[in-house]
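[INFO] parsing input record for Putative choline binding protein
[DEBUG] input buffer:
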Amino acid sequence: MFRSAVRKAFEITRAEWLGRAVRRVAAVVVTATFAATAILAGAQPTLAAPAKGQVDGPSSSGAQARRGPGTVYKVAKRLPEGRGVNIVCTTSSQPVRGTYGTSTIWNRLDNGRWVPDANVYTGTNERTRPECPGTGRRPSGDDYPYSRSYGIDRWAMYTGECTSFVAWRMEQVNGYFHNHMWRHGKKGHWGNAAHWNDNAKKLGYRVDRTPRMGAIAYWEAGKSGASRYGHVGYVVSVSSDGKKVTIEEYNWGKRHGYGKRTIPVGNPSGYIHLAPGT
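[DEBUG] output buffer:
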């Protein structure tokens, strides 16, 4: 966030500000050049050098570093007032009010934790780094951490259900996920699988009939054998001719158990593209 020029003018001179602006532009040019070179070389572009920030919480109370971009995620660590932080990327999530206003920007730090931009002084009210990419991971196999437990998982879903397994996959490919996650200032609620389509659209995620590896396959209530609660699965792969899709899932055919099947692309109601690159 950007401190009020009236209240904080003494903390930065015009010369300093211009110097920072020049360095910021130079950094953008270098980053763009590097990214273009990486793409031409066939490599994956890397994130730009971290932007610098300083913890500036309300009433000098510091900030909470969380496991995801929102207060629904657990606090990983409390950062003291004035602590320097390195911002690697950002996203728009839950609005947070700070000393100098409200912002929906959340900053991911170089240690993987998240802090609201409202609690970090960066010299601007805008993003200092672009949207966070997905993790790039495309997991497969029964690695679900709640296969032998019953209750509520860390995403606020019922364990052993299809929704809980897909929440696990989305945490793996997107970096974070929660039943009550925010996006662009809107609070979502995934709930039963039959509601995932509508919630995804509400939060601004792309929903269509085209599967991609890492996407979510969803079935509306009663579709292709789904119950009145609907069903969701994780897209492992798509056939070369685009006619078949292989999905992983829980609680289909085997109660609270893992399954994998290859089905026609049109068998699900559609596909939700939550993680970048899917």
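[INFO] Residues 34 and 45 are 8 Å apart (CA to CA).
[INFO] shutting down worker
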